[in-house]
């Protein structure tokens, strides 16, 4: 928090964090791991409605959807009556910002991103450019543009979060709310605010603590939506197979341009083994989970002929991406094999997707507290997108770009330019 998220390096901050961390995490766990609560949370993001305007076909910048604004959208095809029918866009940027517009209002309500339209650009600049440098110990005062721009983005995000918590606090206490903002749809941030209030955490410290939380909610999830879409489209015939598998759970209104009339998010998560196996394979290739633990008491580990003695006060780091690429666990590890995680259940005879050795969420009691929500968000966005949109690569063939190390999920070395058309039912 000090080194990367820029929180105050003071005993007061440290003391506050120690008191609030457990109650804050238990709120997240209750909302985002539990099956029915996580489904309800994804439902609040209203993917079926929003996906209809994934690209709006608008030509004036001010008419674009907020998630289209950084994606270089361009109308590339029109019908006989001059109505736009196809749009070209940068896939990674488009789905990353679409996903963030689904997820962030679930925490903070709709007003937050509308009031802070720069937040997402700042978020990704911080995540892509600044985070990895600070993480390896580069000092924040170095007068390099990449660092100073990243620090400015981080400061703007903290100011935005501080303003948000002030408004939530005013709303909860029945005081007049700054700008008369609508706080009625704020999600678990209201419960977080009660914890902050109970322990006397200042508004600035609330913002410092929440920055790492909103980062954790988005930094891995949204890039993985991109990798998932890129991989499933690059495997011949897979999108058609997935459309067939999800069809009972994603109802589409016909005739005309397709629209989703209902979606069973829990069933997508429970009843679609190929979709699940393909997302596990995407985690294997696209995520870089690491569990880091502080050693509390001396431990001796035996490892073949080696004996490791772990000293209290040191840290142990388990980078699971090493295992994810180990050919002895995953043959042809560089290949995307969508059914790699499919098994036949010996009792029911049904196909199921099982993690096996994969650990995308870390391990033990400190493993990811948002995993069910994250997975449902990715599956819901992907299932909705392939149900009502056709997508093809502008350069003719699906070439999944090389990946670069990221801050939890890999970054594509370059974006994919895609052409999107609404699917039309007879
Ligand atoms: C695909 C998306 C995601 C991936 C791959 C992911 C992965 C991880 C990993 C590897 C950890 C560290 C676990 C460990 O130390 O063993 C973690 C921690 C955490 N994640 Fe996620 N995460 C994702 C999405 C989310 C979301 C959507 C949320 C919140 C809604 C979230 C909240 C958290 C929290 C609060 C922790 C800290 C847990 C603790 O210290 O007890 N994550 N995540």
UniProtKB/TrEMBL annotation:
Asked whether the keyword Iron is assigned, the reply is yes
> CDD domains per the record?
CYP7_CYP8-like
Alphabetic keyword roster: Heme, Iron, Metal-binding
> Which of this chain's residues are annotated to bind heme?
368
GO MF assignments? heme binding; iron ion binding; monooxygenase activity; oxidoreductase activity, acting on paired donors, with incorporation or reduction of molecular oxygen
Quote the SUPFAM superfamilies the UniProt record gives: Cytochrome P450
Question: Which coenzyme or cofactor does it need?
Answer: heme
What is the official name of this protein in its record?
Cytochrome P450
Q: Which organism is it from?
A: Neoarthrinium moseri
């Amino acid at each position: 928090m000090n080194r990367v998220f820029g929180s105050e390096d003071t005993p007061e901050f440290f003391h506050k964090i120690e008191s609030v961390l457990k109650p804050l995490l238990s709120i997240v766990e209750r909302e985002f791991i539990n099956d029915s609560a996580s489904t309800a949370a994804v439902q609040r993001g209203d993917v079926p409605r929003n996906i209809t305007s994934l690209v709006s076909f608008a030509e004036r910048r001010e008419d674009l959807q907020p998630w289209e604004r950084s994606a270089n959208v361009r109308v590339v095809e029109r019908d006989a009556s001059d109505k736009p029918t196809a749009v070209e866009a940068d896939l990674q940027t488009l789905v990353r910002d679409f996903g963030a517009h689904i997820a962030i209002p679930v925490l903070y309500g709709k007003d937050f991103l509308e009031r802070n339209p720069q937040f997402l650009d700042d978020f990704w600049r911080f995540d892509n450019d600044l985070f990895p440098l600070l993480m390896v110990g580069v000092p924040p005062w170095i007068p390099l543009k990449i660092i100073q721009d990243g620090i400015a983005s981080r400061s703007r995000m903290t100011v935005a979060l501080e303003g948000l918590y002030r408004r939530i606090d005013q709303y909860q206490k029945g005081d007049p709310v700054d700008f008369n903002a609508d706080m009625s749809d704020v999600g678990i941030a209201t419960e977080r605010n009660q914890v902050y209030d109970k322990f006397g955490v200042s508004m600035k410290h609330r913002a410092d603590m929440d920055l790492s939380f909103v980062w954790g909610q988005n930094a891995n999830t949204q890039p993985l939506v991109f990798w998932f879409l890129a991989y499933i489209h690059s495997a011949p015939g897979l999108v058609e197979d997935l459309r067939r598998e999800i069809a009972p759970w994603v109802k589409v209104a016909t005739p005309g341009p397709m629209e989703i009339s209902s979606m069973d998010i829990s069933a997508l998560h429970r009843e679609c083994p190929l979709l699940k196996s393909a997302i596990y394979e995407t985690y294997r290739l696209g995520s870089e989970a690491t569990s880091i633990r502080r050693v509390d008491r001396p431990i001796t580990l035996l490892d073949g002929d080696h004996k490791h003695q772990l000293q209290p006060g040191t840290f142990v780091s388990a980078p699971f991406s090493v295992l994810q690429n180990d050919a002895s666990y995953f043959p042809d590890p560089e290949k995307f094999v969508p059914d790699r995680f499919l098994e036949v259940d010996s009792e029911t005879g049904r196909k199921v997707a099982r993690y096996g050795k994969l650990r995308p969420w870390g391990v033990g009691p400190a493993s990811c507290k948002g995993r069910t929500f994250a997975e449902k968000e990715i599956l819901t966005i992907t299932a909705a997108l392939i149900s009502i949109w056709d997508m093809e690569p502008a350069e003719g063939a699906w070439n999944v770009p090389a990946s670069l190390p990221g801050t939890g999920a890999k970054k594509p070395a370059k974006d994919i330019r895609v052409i999107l058309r609404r699917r039309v039912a007879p």
